[in-house]
Amino acid sequence: MLPDFPSSSQTQRPWRKRRLFALGVGLCLLAGLAALLVLANSSLSLNVDKARSNLELQLQQLTGQAVSVAGETSFELLPRPVVRLSDVRIGSADDKRAMTVTQVVAQFNLLDALVGRSEVSRLTLIRPELDTRQTPVAAPSEGPGGQDTLPEQAQVNETSDMLTSYLRSFFERFDGIRRVELRDGLFRFQTGGHTLSSVNIDLDWPGKDRTAELAGSFVWNGQSAELNLQVSDPAKFLEGQTSPLRMTMSSPLLDIGFNGNGAYGNSATLEGRLRVSTPSPTRAARWLDLTSGPMPELGALQFETNLNFAENRAKLEEAKVNLGQTPGRGAIELRFHEDAKTELTGTIAFEELDLAAVGNAIAPLPTNILNLQRRINWSFVQALNMDLRLSARTVSIAELQLQDLAATVKFANGTAILDLGDAVLAGGRAQARFTLPTESFPPVLKGKVNFQGVDASVLSNTLSNGAMRLSGITGLVADVEIPVTDWQSIVQGNSATIDMTIVAGAAGGLPAIVPVENNSQEIALQQNSSPVSFEKLEARLTNAGTATWIDALRVETATGRFDMNGVATMGDESILLDGAFWPEPNQVSDTSAAFTSSKPIEFNIQGKWPTPELKIAPRSTPM
């Protein structure tokens, strides 16, 4: 007997019931959701004022400032609950530091909004604007033209304190809001008339114990920049406790990277690895408004260092520096003072150093006659106090090469001091010291140079570009005094006294005084002569502008002694010398010698260099 199977109608009945049940549940949910939406829309539309007041209260708690709304308030539930406030002012009505915002957009959680809670999860400030240019920072003083001016340091301090207050109150109250966005922000500063514009910054902070990230872009002093800052423990960071942090900023003029630890309490601290790169330190400093005047353009700069910043003191240790393609290593310390100049101390060692390039950066060589009167700016000396010790294996000064240089550069109260303590120069030793008080007018460079045991051929080739050939061992002491207002003052006002001695040498490449054969009373100038050897050359020179007075020049040779004095001028290349030749006694006693007279042969040399004329004539001035 076969079993009984249910009929097809009996089989389909349970599935039909299930579909009807699911359909009924879906309709109920849809109806419930529709009811909730209608209720929420009607409720929230009736409570826009309440939502607005709640948002104003949260903004007040977030900024620590009074908040007022002058424009319209609107609400959207879908696709996400959003409240928009127009024409918002953060700050009291009489506060000139108040921030104005074109529109504040607050986003809420959908379920929170449905049950009547209005906790902001995302806040967007569209076109926030802050203007500190009219902030009264100190009692005004009357400036030129009867206009009121404000002390610059007071302006800087007031603006800094105001921004610090804004940031501190904002971050200390930042709670619950997971994201804050600034769009198209504009901030005008009283100091320097600078503007921070096109500010588009996002701050993500999921919670007090989570990593906060600030990222975005802005335009400062006409250059755009991108910023990214990550703080691992923002709560500790704001309380003055150490927190890991990472920061990068990139712009056409400056790239900065930092990776380490920091704290932001009563005073900021940083400790970690710092990287800085700029194609021009001068333009980067001007972009950051860190200088009040022109700075020397020394070339591109890259450096990496261990940074330790605390209590207004920055220590840069294990620094790797590359300045103008010149690598170096060292350590630097900076001390910042509120009411005094910044102090810089440290030591840097270079493999190679081009002092001529540094000098040309400070006082560029004139390219035409108009550039002669271009004022040399020494404001960088007056901007800070500095004590920097430099060393270099090789130093170039034009064509002159020094080795193993040890030097000190000091800026103290507007006075610059360059002390070249010791260096190897052409087999001998070289020392020099220069002092320049830049705040006096005109600024006058004074210095002393000392060479001992130096190969004379190196000096003559450098100074005469190979036209004059000297050899021997040189000792030289020079005192210089040069006004450095501009190149015209340098050329016309320079003065120096030089004492020089060369022993066991020879002179070539210049007209030589030679005896005339078979004539005991005549000597002549011979052009393009072969080098003339001498036992000793002594000279005392006085330089003033383009003229050089040869106070005394004595040359001792195997045939006799020459004594000369006179003047040479660079402008017209003229020379005027009075001299006398004293033959050696053994030359006088030798009847076969060209010279048989024991009396000196007096002469003068006059004309254009390098072809002057020699005449046998009494000296116009005694030797």
- The N- to C-terminal Cα distance equals 159 Å
Helix fraction by DSSP (H/I, runs of at least 4): 10-25%
Oligomer: single chain
Instruction: Flag low-confidence runs.
Output: 27-46, 135-151, 591-596
Coarse morphology? elongated
Rg over CA atoms? 41 Å
Question: Biggest β-sheet, characterized?
Answer: 29 strands, mixed
Q: Label the structural class.
A: alpha+beta
What's the number of helices?
11
In percent terms, what proportion of residues is strand? over 45%
Structural overview:
The protein is α+β, with helices and mostly antiparallel strands and 623 residues long. Helix content is 20%, strand content 49%. The strands form three sheets. It has a 29-stranded mixed beta sheet that branches. It has a two-stranded antiparallel ribbon with strand order 6-7. It has a two-stranded antiparallel ribbon with strand order 26-27. The protein is elongated. The relative contact order is 0.04. About 7% of the residues have low confidence. This is AsmA family protein.
What's the SSE blueprint?
Blueprint: H1 8-46, H2 48-63, E1 67-69, E2 73-76, E3 82-90, E4 99-108, H3 110-114, E5 120-131, E6 141-142, E7 148-149, H4 152-173, E8 179-188, E9 195-204, E10 212-220, E11 223-231, H5 234-238, E12 243-250, E13 255-264, E14 268-278, H6 281-287, E15 301-310, E16 313-323, E17 326-335, E18 342-354, H7 355-362, H8 379-382, E19 384-397, E20 400-412, E21 415-425, E22 428-437, E23 444-455, H9 456-464, E24 469-483, H10 487-493, E25 495-508, E26 512-515, E27 523-526, E28 532-544, E29 547-556, E30 560-569, E31 574-583, H11 585-589, E32 601-608, E33 613-616
Parallel strand pairs: 5-8, 18-19
Antiparallel strand pairs: 1-3, 2-3, 3-4, 4-5, 6-7, 8-9, 9-10, 10-11, 11-12, 12-13, 13-14, 14-15, 15-16, 16-17, 17-18, 19-20, 20-21, 21-22, 22-23, 23-24, 24-25, 25-28, 26-27, 28-29, 29-30, 30-31, 31-32, 32-33
